[in-house]
Amino acid sequence: MMFPLVANKRIKDSLTSLISQERLPHAIIIEGDLGTGKRTLSRYIAKASVCDEEARPCGVCRNCHLAEIGSHPDIEVVTTEEKKASITKDQIEKLRSIAYHSAHTAKRRVFIIEQANTMNPASQNKLLKVLEEPPSDVVFILITPSTEALLETVVSRCLVLSLFPPTLKEATDYLVLNRNIDKETAEKLLIEEKNNIGKAILRLEEKKESIGRAVAHDFFDAVEGSSPLSAMLSTVTLENNRGETLKFTEELSEILINKVKNAKNLSETAREYTRMYDALCELVPTLTTNINLSLFFTALTSKFSAIKNK
Ligand SMILES: [Zn+2]
Q: Within the chain, what is the greatest distance between any pair of CA atoms?
């Protein structure tokens, strides 16, 4: 199975050798910003810990498969309970009581503590007791944005893996290959998100799910087809939704900018799209006033149709 993170080569090399030599430490901290791959890496290490094959994790054996679907009996994930802001002392207490049981089917047990940074000092001290005398066949993985949130005594017992975002080129290549988007869009998004692949993917998914953004494409296609009535109809679902209407305008301006870029400079089409873009920019500020959204869409449709029919 391939190492799941882009870049972070130093971590890849050291983990690969620790895994192949059966020298994984009992406690590992994975630190890094949101979106740098902490969770992904924790699942990879968990798989490698329960997989029996020569090249671990193989990704195909029964242990790997159960780990993949989150049902491996020897992999326990501790995460904040519903409506609670932090990992509680009780959760750590429970973890302590089962940590000394032997593994069910794998040769090791893995405990992943997500949001480890939310443990208060009392909980951390409880955990520390297990880390000081770890059961021989257990791996603890603590996930945190930064080790600063953890007691020094805890950190000193762990191997710390610090994750960093990849370079712009590495991240762009990854998105183009795995998310089916063009290089320019990927680069623009990644520059805005400081090369953070996880955050860029979140933005892409948000885009897919936004009705406003979807409507922007229908609206634009209808204008292109010189059908102002369809354009107007496409926006009906947004008339009571100011938030999605704002996303509609963001997406529409992106569509127009791309159209201008792809049209030949100074061509009639480029001028047409530029005029539409200007008309949109003129109307958007009215959204911050209490304008009736249906009036906004009527004005936009009539301006776009006028430009199109010129
Ligand atoms: Zn396997």
A: 80
Tokens of 196: 């953070």
| CA 291 / ligand 1 centre spacing (Å) | 59
Spacing, Cα 147 to ligand 1 middle (Å):
30
CA–CA separation, 207 and 255 (whole Å): 13
Alpha carbon of 286 to ligand 1 centroid (Å): 58
**Cα 68 to middle of ligand 1, angstroms:** 10
Write down the pTM of the prediction.
Answer: 0.70
Q: Ligand 1 mean position to 47 CA, how many Å?
A: 7
| Tens digit of each residue's pLDDT (9 = 90 or more) over 256-304 | 998 888 787 778 888 999 999 999 999 999 988 888 999 999 999 999 9
CA–centroid distance, 6 to ligand 1, in Å, is: 21
Q: How far is the CA of 125 from the centre of ligand 1 (A)?
A: 34
Which residue, chain included where needed, has tokens 């969770």?
A: 39
Q: What is the pLDDT of residues 17-54, one digit of tens each?
A: 999 999 999 999 999 998 899 999 999 999 999 999 98
Whether the Cβ atoms of residue 231 and residue 223 lie closer than 8 Å to each other: yes
* Domain coordinates in residue numbering, the chain: 9-162, 168-208, 210-309
Architecture of domain 9-162: 3-Layer(aba) Sandwich (3.40)
